[in-house]
């Protein structure tokens, strides 16, 4: 029988935790001699002079500082690409991928099982995101990873993830998400074997909770429902391989010790997880289908107010009660570009062709909306209260156009017939 993991609660809280009593210094961050002869080390997730309400940093007290490592050598991971490749000629058309096959996943871990489907922006300029899929079947044992290019939002679709981080351990199952800050070392265990899921690699401003505006002080994702780890450290002797991503390239270095040697820490920069079942869904109780922005869990702002570098949006189970309303999403063309995935269940606007583990892409001003089947059904439905249940879809929505990788464009999973799902929508105009 395993002991349940312990967590702290809150998003961006001032956490304080110690695995050994007395390991945290009191009243100061860097005493001449830290308690238990630990090494103080600061990790800053924002510039020192960032506004107080945006500033993120954590003090760690560790058995050896992270500067103790071997020399870095290049590491090959060609399927994990960074930023948009502008040489890709991409027609302004809707795109969809069937679920990626999991053949051979037993041989690779989370790092080597990562594939970029599409990306935009520039990690060096700290703008844009990558939309990736991982398919892996091997746990990372004496191997760890650190991403200097961006924070990572993990969305498991099949199989649990056990994230061992410098700050402690998180277990994340499908239906939950995890957010690992830029620069935080972690490794991924796969207790259920072969696993698949989605990743948003955010090169831009850190994700935060969206403003609520007229909604008020409560609703959507509440800060108290996010969970951060408590301090924990590995005691086994032996070295690690540390893989680092920086500037779109990968590097590896040997270490003589575990990087998970933090005995205590305090601060507001921490990995967190969140159960999407706790999202307080808001919708219309009179008429019309509201904008999807009401489903925003986290947002990464850009330098243009209200226009996000990335919004993470979910479509969870919910009631539909609108009267005299076409209840699925309407046909639309957006300034924002939408990468979409399905964790489980059925998406109401594409009941047949969009499957769990698949993805779709509708870039800026590309028309999209319900397929013919969904349109016909919704147009003729008896508008009783209806529960959309056992479903979880999501979007990575960005102000920047997504550019698929060559791998994504040549994949057998690319649905070459996607546009046909609208071909049967006929001119129904009836002149009075």
Brief summary:
The chain is mainly beta and 432 residues long. The protein has two helices and 28 strands. The relative contact order is 0.19.
Protein architecture, described:
- It is a single chain.
- A nine-stranded antiparallel sheet has the order 1-16-20-13-10-15-8-7-28. Strands 6-25-24-27-22-21 form a six-stranded antiparallel sheet, with no helix packed on it. Strands 2-19-4-3 form a four-stranded antiparallel sheet, with no helix packed on it.
- By secondary structure, the chain is mostly beta strands.
- A hairpin with a 2-residue loop joins strand 11 (161-165) and strand 12.
- The chain is built from two helices and 28 strands.
- 42% of the residues are buried.
- It has helices at 372-379, 406-410, and strands at residues 7-9, 15-18, 39-44, 57-62, 73-74, 95-97, 114-119, 129-136, 143-147, 151-158, 161-165, 168-172, 176-180, 186-189, 195-202, 226-229, 240-246, 249-255, 262-267, 272-275, 296-301, 308-315, 318-320, 337-344, 359-362, 386-388, 392-398, 403-404.
- The longest helix is centred in the C-terminal third of the chain and has 8 residues, at 372-379.
Mean pLDDT, rounded to whole units? 95
Beta strand %: 25-35%
With helices defined by DSSP (H or I, 4 residues minimum), what is the helix count? 2
**Which consecutive residue ranges, at least 5 long each, have pLDDT under 50?**
none
Number of strands: 28
Rg = 23 Å
User: For the terminal residues, how far apart are their CA atoms?
Assistant: 72 Å
Structural class: mainly beta
Q: What gross morphology would you assign?
A: globular
Strand order of the largest sheet: 1-16-20-13-10-15-8-7-28
How much helicity do the residues have?
under 10%
Order of helices and strands: EEEEEEEEEEEEEEEEEEEEEEEEEHEEEH
Largest sheet: 9 strands, antiparallel
């Amino acid at each position: 029988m395993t002991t349940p993991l312990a967590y702290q609660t809150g998003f961006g809280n001032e956490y304080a935790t110690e695995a050994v009593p007395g390991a945290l210094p009191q009243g100061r961050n860097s005493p001449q001699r830290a308690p238990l002869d630990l090494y103080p080390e600061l990790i800053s997730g924002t510039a020192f002079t960032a506004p107080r309400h945006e500033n993120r940093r954590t003090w760690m007290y560790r058995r050896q500082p992270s500067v103790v490592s071997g020399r870095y050598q290049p590491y090959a991971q060609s399927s994990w690409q960074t930023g948009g490749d502008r040489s890709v000629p991409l027609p302004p058309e809707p795109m969809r991928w069937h679920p990626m096959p999991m053949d051979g996943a037993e041989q690779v871990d989370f790092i080597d099982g990562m594939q970029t489907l599409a990306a935009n922006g520039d990690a060096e300029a700290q703008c844009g995101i990558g939309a990736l899929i991982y398919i892996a079947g091997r746990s990372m044992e004496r191997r760890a990873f650190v991403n200097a290019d961006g924070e990572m939002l993990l969305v498991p679709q099949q199989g649990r993830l056990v994230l061992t981080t410098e700050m402690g351990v998180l277990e994340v199952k499908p239906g939950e998400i995890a957010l690992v800050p830029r620069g935080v070392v972690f490794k991924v265990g796969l207790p259920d074997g072969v696993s698949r899921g989605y990743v948003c690699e955010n090169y831009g401003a850190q994700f935060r909770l969206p403003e609520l505006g007229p909604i008020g002080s409560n609703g959507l994702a509440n800060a108290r429902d996010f969970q951060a780890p408590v301090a924990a450290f590995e005691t086994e002797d032996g070295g690690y391989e540390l893989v680092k991503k920086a500037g779109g390239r990968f590097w590896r270095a040997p270490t003589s010790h575990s990087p998970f040697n933090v005995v205590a820490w305090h601060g507001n920069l921490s990995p967190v997880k969140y159960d999407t079942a706790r999202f307080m869904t808001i919708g219309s109780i009179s008429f019309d289908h509201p904008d999807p922005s009401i489903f925003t869990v986290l947002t990464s702002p850009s330098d243009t107010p209200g226009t996000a570098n990335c919004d993470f949006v979910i479509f969870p189970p919910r009631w539909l009660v609108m009267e005299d309303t076409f209840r699925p999403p309407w046909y639309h063309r957006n300034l924002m570009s939408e990468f979409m995935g399905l964790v489980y269940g059925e998406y109401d606007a594409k009941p047949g062709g969009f499957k769990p583990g698949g993805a779709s892409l509708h870039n800026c001003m590309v028309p999209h909306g319900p397929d013919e089947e969904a349109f016909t059904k919704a147009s003729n439905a008896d508008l009783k209260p209806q529960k959309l249940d056992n479903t979880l879809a999501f979007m990575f929505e960005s102000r920047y156009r997504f550019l698929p990788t060559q791998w994504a464009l040549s994949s057998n999973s690319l649905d070459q017939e996607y546009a046909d799902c609208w071909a049967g929508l006929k001119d129904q105009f009836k002149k009075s």
